[in-house]
Amino acid sequence: MTRDEAARNLDEGVSARGALGRLGRSTAKHLSAPGTSYAKAATGAVALMLIAAGAIFLYAPTDALQGPVQRIFYLHVSSAIAAFGCFAVVLLGGIVYLRSESLAADRIARAAALVGVILTTVTLVMGMLWAKPIWGTFWTWDARLTSTLVLWIIYAGYLLVRRLAEPGRQAARFAAIVGIFGFIDVPIVHFSVTWWRTQHPGPVVARDALPPEMLATFLFTMACTLVLAAVMIAIRYRIETLQDEKQIAVEPPKVLRAREPEAAR
After folding, report:
1. Closest C-alpha among 244, 213, 199, 235 to residue 104
2. Are 112 and 93 in contact (CB under 8 A)?
3. What is the pLDDT of residues 156-179, one digit of tens each?
4. Domain chopping of the chain, boundaries
5. 3-state secondary structure at position 67
6. According to CATH, what is the number of the domain 36-249?
């Protein structure tokens, strides 16, 4: 390789790195600008959650048996339902990707998995805070709690696979399989309180055990949480798309050092 070719390769590497920096700044600006649809959607979702919090503390009556701590119920159950919805999106995205290798399906599965893990974390933490004053302990190896923890581990493992594996078709297919089979645990979590004798209370909404004010507050909180989850998935999907584009379109070429001319013998 001549010195001119090496210089051209070096210039291309510098230009690629410059384009990479510009794309990163453009991504941050696009996602943070207050006028974007993403910022408006996020603001609306947060506003809905604040209204739901007002309903929880100001509208819903205090439970006669458990007292104020029962108010955790509204966010605890709503987060669990929203997490189930996220993992259903991962399931569908994985199926579509395995059938058609759609990059969009893979991205939305990645986005939904992250949001689902976050919501499952909220579910576990809220449940532990609720359990301490009622059961006298933060944790017990109850069927509902254990199966929920297993669900968190499965999809945290899904995210770990996506992070550690080399990006590409093989990693996407393996993650899709993990996401599909991992969803088996969702009905186990849901029906655990009816399949086994558990310390966790059974379903109260299906049994009409809630007063009208509590039921209305729960349904409203659940709807707001689902909206928040959808907005989070949409934002994360956009981030995943930009990251994929950055990886594919702006990859600096390798610069080869020019060989020094051999001394004349």
Report:
1. 244
2. yes
3. 999 998 888 777 788 889 999 999
4. 36-249
5. strand
6. 1.20.120
